[in-house]
Amino acid sequence: xxxxxxxxxxxxxxxxxxxxxxxxxxxxxxxxxxxxxxxxxxxxxxxxxxxxxxxxxxxxxxxxxxxxxxxxxxxxxxxxxxxxxxxxxxxxxxxxxxxxxxxxxxxxxxxxxxxxxxxxxxxxxxxxxxxxxxxxxxxxxxxxxxxxxxxxxxxxxxxxxxxxxxxxxxxxxxxxxxxxxxxxxxxxxxxxxxxxxxxxxxxxxxxxxxxxxxxxxxxxxxxx
Length: 224
Prior knowledge:
The chain is α+β, with helices and mostly antiparallel strands. The protein is built from five helices and six strands, in the order αααβββαββαβ.
C-alpha cells in the first residue's frame, strides 16, 4: 500500500509538469509561415536562434540605418520640405520692419509662388534694370516673386521682401529674360546676403530656380 501511495503521489506531481512543458513547447515547435513551411526558428543544430525568433516573440532589434544615420525606409519628405529644398530654415527678417513693411501681399497684388513650372506674364529685363527688377523669397510655398515697383504704402513707396514673406530662408532680386532664362542674386537685407546666408544656401537657391525650368545665371555669392 505504501508503495502504491508513493507512486500515486509522484504521478500527481508529474502530470502538471508534463502539461506545462507541452504548453511551452507547442508554440515554438508548431510555428508555420503563411506558405506552410517551418518558421525558421530552429537552427541547423536543432536549437533556436533568438535573433530569428525575436520578431515573432515580440522583441525588437536595432533598426537598420543608412549612411545618413536614418532608419532604412524612413520617410524624409517632411524633412526635405522643412529644409526648404536645401535653402535652410525660414527665419525672421534681419532688418527692422518699418511702416507697412510687415503687411503681407497676395495674388491680388501680383504675387506668384511656384514649386514647379515657370512664372506667368513676367516682364523681361536686364541685370540691374530697376524697372524690371523682381523681388523673390523662398519659404514653404516655394519661390515667391513680385515686381519690385509694385506700389505699396511703405516708406519706399513699393513692396519689400518682408511684404512677400514674414519668414523666409532666402531672398534676393531676379531679372527674367528670353528662352526661360533668369538672372538672380541674393540681394536682400532681410533674407539674403546681408542676413547671414551661406554659399551652400545660395547654391541650393540656384538649383531650386533651375528645378522650375529656368536657365539660371546666378550672380557670384556676395555680389549684386
